[in-house]
Amino acid sequence: MLENHSGFVHSVMIGLLPVGISHTSWFLKKWKSGAMKKNLKINLILREENFGGILFDRHNLTYKFLSHEEVEQLDKNFYQLRKTNKEYPDNKIISAPVRVYWEITRKCNLKCPQCFNNSTSALPGELDLEECLKVIRGLKSDGVIEVRITGGEPTQKEGWDKLVACATEEGLVVSLNTNGVFSDDSTVEKIGRSGIDQVIVSVDGPKKIHEESRGKGNFKKVIKTIKKLNYYQTSVRANILLTKKVLPYIEEMVYFLKDMVQEICFMQLKPIGRGGKILSLAPSHLKMIEVDKRLGLLRKSYPELKISSGYDFIPTKKIIPVPCLDLTTCASGFRGCNLDSRGNIYSCGFLEEISCDYSLGNIVKESYSLLDVWHNSNKLNSFRKANLRKTRKCQKCQHFRKVCFGSCVVMEQYKLRKSISGRDPYCYKENERK
Ligand SMILES: C[S@@+](CC[C@H](N)C(=O)[O-])C[C@H]1O[C@@H](n2cnc3c(N)ncnc32)[C@H](O)[C@@H]1O
Ligand code: SF4
Ligand code: SF4
Question: What phi and psi, each to the nearest 5 degrees, are found at residue 14?
Fold first, then answer.
């Protein structure tokens, strides 16, 4: 997302393969068949910003920040224009979140030991379908580009398919994060026919590891779901959680999944919610540096597969900052935000588990718009400042922004509030000799 984007812009300008999509064999096959050329215009979305624009590629759900000059060079035939419904002064904040993560329910058919939001049953007061549809229309009119529907298990919410249909009809980019364990084929059929841009399926490791966390018999079920989604030509990303248990199997998992998915994302285990109880399974900073190198080699071995990572404390990405925006920190509160199942707005999904004090407001009470909170909330602005500064220990650390991009401020709050002590596995300094 933050890497050099000049090649990307160039390809859009001259009408060749657009942006970073050339790495999926699935994409190439479709591209060569001509099916995609016809749809090219709807694959790229440009949202104008004070500094230029944000160009979003709905094929791989990545986006780039462009200057005015770069926007002017784009061929207008190759993108759809998206606008926010209000003008805001240039305050170094983008006009609206690019991506909103929305936990539509806390209800779940599984009870994974790592679950950061402790999902089991629906929360009292979850939004009903009518309210959910208004949320979707509100996000669209705010200028939000992507809604990532998650949970709990989102397919456990009554009316989830109507909600997805509304989002796709509104023209939002839609992604769905699911455990892929369904009681019959009708759920996967509905997903496959829904027009969802990407389905993100959690695969915690090879069969033994996956079933230790997600239950016996569920590895076969999740793979069956992925294969069915292939039949519907739905783009699939597999999320693999990086625990110590999974580290020996990274290459094996990539080899196993490479022809079934378009993307594999290696996620950082956050010791929060039930995940707080398995902190000992979190690999150390040094181990994660090794993992990052292995992922680099895998990218070279499988150039057609997108291999991404969900950790941001290792500064391996080359950053070309847009002058007025600091893009060196995680996306929370800067490029995205979260909604819980009751409509509460958070800068980061992990804050929900700490305390409802961190809620920035409720989207229903905000007349189904995020924009006032996004631009004017004092709490959100304080969070943004903290997220840039990182934790107090990071400010004094000689490694900050050199070998380490700092530890997560939300995790620090979690430890403080829940009185959790012990080593921070992801801090380079605390684990230098590990
Ligand atoms: C909370 S789940 C909700 C969607 C769905 N139920 C699933 O499991 O994919 C969303 C994502 O968070 C990941 N996740 C769960 N607990 C986590 C933790 N402690 N740290 C980081 N990611 C976690 C899951 O693996 C999943 O990919
Ligand atoms: S990680 Fe997903 S499947 Fe597992 S308990 Fe949490 S919400 Fe349910
Ligand atoms: S204190 Fe730890 S987490 Fe913070 S910058 Fe230094 S090494 Fe990184």
Answer: -95, 5
